[in-house]
Write a structure and sequence with these properties.
By secondary structure, the protein is of the alpha+beta class. The protein is built from five helices and 29 strands. It has helices spanning 80-102, 116-132, 170-179, 181-188, 219-233, and strands at 6-12, 15-23, 30-34, 113-114, 150-159, 194-202, 205-215, 252-253, 257-258, 265-266, 270-271, 290-295, 301-306, 311-315, 332-337, 343-348, 353-357, 374-379, 385-390, 395-399, 416-422, 427-432, 437-440, 457-462, 468-473, 478-482, 499-504, 511-515, 520-523. Helix 1 crosses helix 3.
C-alpha cells in the first residue's frame, strides 16, 4: 500500500519551501497544491515529485543474458552507471531546450555548461538521498574561492515515480521541476551559466539533483542579467511558453520503471522512444523511433526508417532520399523496397505515400477520411502497384494491385499490424497483433491466433519462395510457418527497446529484426550495421 501524497523541499540560498503533491483521478495527471512555509524570511525554489504505483525488482544489468553468437545489436543492455550518465545528460538537454525557447534579445538566457565540480557534487548528493530513500536539500557552500571558482547558488532535488507511464522518466522529472514556480526559477534563471546534474537509480526510481551556478568573477554581470529578467518577466518566472510537455522527447528511464503499455518494463534502463508519435521539441533529445526495415533485392543491405521520415542505409543499400526535415501530416510507419531494390516507398499512418528511387507513385489515402490508421504496404511482384492495409483490416489497392478481399467491417480479435504480398499467387496476407493470419488469394500456412503470446506480433516477412512466412513479436520472439526455417530469436534476450519489424535475407534464408532504437539482430544473415 502506498501513501498517495508526497512532500518535496528544495533550496536556493536560504530560501525554502515545501510542496504537497496529490494525484488526480486520471492516471499520469497530477495536481499541485502549494503549501509554502517560511524558514527565516524567504520562500524557496526546488522540487520533488514522487508518484505511486507498482514496482518491479531492480534488474542487475551485469547478469543480463547476452545475444547469441553471430547476433549484433545496439539494443543490448547498458550498465547502471551508463544509464545514470545518460539520464544526467538528458536532463541538461531538456533544461537548455527550455532556456533556448525563452531566450530573447532583451533577456538572453545562456545555455548552461556542465561544470565537473558541480556535477560531482550533485552526483554525490543524489547518491546520498538515494541511500536514505528520502529527498533532502544539499547545503549550498559559500563562494569564497578564486575568481575562477564556479560557485553554486541554487539547487533542485527530487525523485521520480516508479510505476506509472508516461512521466516516470527524465521527461516527467524535468516536467515536474518546470511545473513548480521555484524549480522553474532555478532552471531558467538568467544569472546561471553552469550546471551539474546528478542521478542515482535506486529501487526502480531516479533520485536527481541539479546544482546551478556561475564563476565568482561573473557575479556583477550575473546579477545584472538576473535583475533584467526580474524586471521584464517578473518573479516567479511565468510557466509559458510550455516547451517540455509530457510526453516530450525520448525519455531516459532507470531500471525497473514501466515505460510502455501492457506492463512493459525497462529492465535495464536507458533511453526509449515512445511507442507513439510525440511532438518534436527543438533542442530536446527527441530522436524519432525506428519504425521498420526493408532489405535490398540482393540482401546485401537494408534500410531503416524512422517515424519522422528519415532513412539510414546499411550495407549496399543506397539512400535515395527521405522526408527528414519535412513537416509530415502523420508519422511514417514503415518502409518497403521495390522489387529490384533500386528504390523504396515510405508509408504514413494517414495513408500518405512517399516514393524514392525507382518506386512509382500510384496513389494513396493521404487526406482521405479513414476508419482506422494505415499500418502496412505491400508491393505487387512487378512493383507497378501496391496494397495498403488499415488496422481494421481494410484494403486499398493501387496501380496493378488487384483487390482480393479484406477484413474491413468484420469484428477482429486483434488489430491488423502488417501485411505481405505473395508474389507466387499475386495475393496477400494480413497479420494481427495476436498472430492471426488472413489470407486472400494466398495459401494459409499457420498462425498464432488463439494462442497466448508473451508480447504482440509487430511484423511479418515472407520467405524467398513465398511458401512460408515469419512473424516477429515486440520482445524479439520469432514464429515460423510453411517453409520458413527457425534461425533463432531474441525472445530470451533483455532488450533496451521493443522490436518493430523484420526483413528476409533471400540469399541465406535467414532474417533481420530491428528495434525501435535502431538496434539490429541478424539470424543466419550478415550484420550490416545499426542506427
Amino acid at each position: 500500500m502506498y501513501d498517495n501524497r508526497s512532500k518535496a523541499c528544495s533550496r536556493e540560498g536560504t530560501w525554502r519551501a515545501c510542496l504537497s503533491l496529490t494525484p488526480s483521478k486520471s492516471i499520469g495527471s497530477w495536481s499541485l497544491r502549494s503549501t509554502f512555509r517560511r524558514v527565516g524570511v524567504v520562500v524557496a525554489t526546488g522540487a520533488l515529485l514522487t508518484l505511486m504505483g507498482c514496482s518491479s525488482a531492480l534488474h542487475d544489468s551485469s547478469s543480463s543474458p547476452r545475444a547469441p553468437k553471430g547476433r549484433e545489436s545496439s539494443s543490448l543492455p547498458m550498465s547502471l552507471p551508463a544509464v545514470e550518465t545518460l539520464y544526467s545528460a538528458d536532463m541538461v538537454a531538456r533544461i537548455n531546450a527550455e532556456r533556448a525557447a525563452r531566450s530573447t534579445a532583451q533577456v538572453p538566457l545562456p545555455q548552461l555548461q556542465v561544470d565537473p565540480g558541480l556535477e560531482a557534487s550533485a552526483q554525490a548528493w543524489s547518491t546520498y538521498i538515494a541511500s536514505i530513500g528520502t529527498v533532502e536539500d544539499p547545503s549550498l557552500p559559500g563562494c569564497n574561492g578564486s575568481v575562477s571558482q564556479v560557485c553554486v547558488f541554487a539547487a533542485n532535488s527530487g525523485d521520480t515515480g516508479y510505476g506509472f507511464w508516461p512521466g516516470d522518466g527524465s521527461d516527467g522529472m524535468n516536467g515536474d521541476y518546470m511545473s513548480s514556480a521555484g524549480h522553474r526559477q532555478n532552471e531558467l534563471g538568467a544569472s546561471y551559466t553552469n550546471v551539474g546534474v546528478g542521478v542515482t537509480c535506486s529501487g526502480n526510481q531516479a533520485f536527481t539533483v541539479e546544482l546551478f551556478g556561475y564563476p565568482a568573477a561573473d557575479i556583477p554581470s550575473a546579477n545584472a542579467r538576473q535583475a533584467t529578467q526580474n524586471a521584464v518577466e517578473g518573479t516567479p518566472l511565468p510557466a509559458a511558453p510550455a516547451v517540455a510537455g509530457t510526453p516530450s522527447g525520448d525519455p531516459v528511464y532507470c531500471p525497473g520503471q514501466t515505460y510502455g503499455p501492457n506492463g512493459e518494463v525497462t529492465a535495464t534502463g536507458g533511453q526509449y522512444p515512445y511507442p507513439y508519435p510525440v511532438p518534436s521539441v527543438p533542442g530536446e533529445p527527441n530522436g524519432a523511433a525506428v519504425v521498420g526495415m526493408a532489405a535490398t533485392s540482393d540482401s546485401g543491405g537494408y534500410w531503416l526508417a524512422r517515424a519522422d521520415g528519415s532513412i539510414s542505409a546499411h550495407g549496399d543499400a543506397v539512400d535515395y532520399g527521405s522526408m527528414a526535415g519535412t513537416a509530415l501530416a502523420a508519422p511514417v510507419t514503415s518502409v518497403v523496397s521495390t522489387p529490384d531494390g533500386k528504390g523504396y516507398w515510405m508509408l504514413g499512418s494517414d495513408g500518405g505515400i512517399f516514393s524514392f528511387g525507382d518506386a512509382g507513385f500510384y496513389g494513396s489515402m493521404g487526406g482521405q477520411a479513414l476508419n482506422a490508421p494505415i499500418v502496412g504496404l505491400a508491393p505487387t511482384a512487378d512493383g507497378r502497384g501496391y496494397w495498403l492495409v488499415g488496422s481494421d483490416g481494410g484494403i486499398f489497392a493501387f496501380g496493378d494491385a488487384a483487390f482480393y478481399g479484406s477484413m474491413g467491417g468484420h469484428q477482429l480479435n486483434a488489430p491488423v499490424v502488417a501485411m505481405a504480398a505473395d508474389n507466387a499467387t499475386g495475393g496477400y496476407w494480413m497479420v494481427g497483433s495476436d498472430g492471426g493470419v488472413f489470407s486472400f488469394n494466398a495459401p494459409f500456412y499457420g498462425s498464432t491466433g488463439g494462442l497466448r503470446l508473451n508480447r504482440p506480433v509487430v511484423g511479418v516477412s515472407p520467405t524467398a519462395s513465398d511458401s512460408g512466412y515469419w512473424f516477429v513479436a515486440s520482445d524479439g520472439g520469432i514464429f515460423a510457418f510453411g517453409d520458413a526455417g527457425f534461425h533463432g530469436s531474441a525472445g530470451n534476450v533483455t532488450l533496451n527497446a521493443p522490436m518493430v519489424g523484420m526483413a528476409t535475407d533471400r540469399s541465406t534464408g535467414g532474417y533481420w529484426m530491428v528495434g525501435s532504437d535502431g538496434g539490429v539482430f541478424a539470424d543466419d544473415a550478415p550484420f550490416l550495421g545499426a542506427d
